[in-house]
Amino acid sequence: MPSIHSNIENSIKRYKRGELVFPVDFRGKGNHDAVKKTLSRLAQEGILRRLGHGIYVLPKKDPIFGEILPSAEQVAISLAKKDQVRIKPAGAHALHKLGLSMQVPTKLVYLTDGTAREIKIGKNIIKFKATTPKKLSLKGTYSSLIILALEELGLDNIDEAMERRLKELLKLENAQTLNQDLKKATVQVAEYITKLIIADDPVA
Fold first, then answer.
1. Same domain, 150 and 168
2. I want to staple 42 with a disulfide (CB 3.0 to 4.6 A). Which of 32, 47, 108, 109 is the partner?
3. What is the arithmetic mean of pLDDT over 50-61?
């Protein structure tokens, strides 16, 4: 009878390079502690790479760059898919995705309808913050990120350069979608965005 180790190792051979591996993937192949020990052993053997607590990857291999590991953002997206929950970037992470901040945040904040938790991935931290369905129903490509960034960071942290960029991005958003998203924002953020739109409208 094959051992738990060989069962799991054979299963991992069917994974694609770059795919994340979690203990829950191997339910039924052994008890939880045995699965965790097997994955830890496979990491020690160099078959897997441990990214964080209970999170492994079958690393991609590049002839020039060597091992290529997934980014913290890719890990967050994979975790959301695994847990079957929704996530949306917020705060400094949302600002960076909008091009409003050149500094890559070490803490990636996501609003979620799943469990609130923090996960350390190397030097980065992924923070899932529980939120309301209303926040996750924001639809705009730009307006959703703008609203969630401003609500997380506060309006006092927005300088003139950021305001100019916000105006440019708001012009790219579908007007109907923007109006719908503004109804779901806090009063302060909705008023601030509305002022930006009016200030940038020569007809107003």
1. yes
2. 47
3. 92
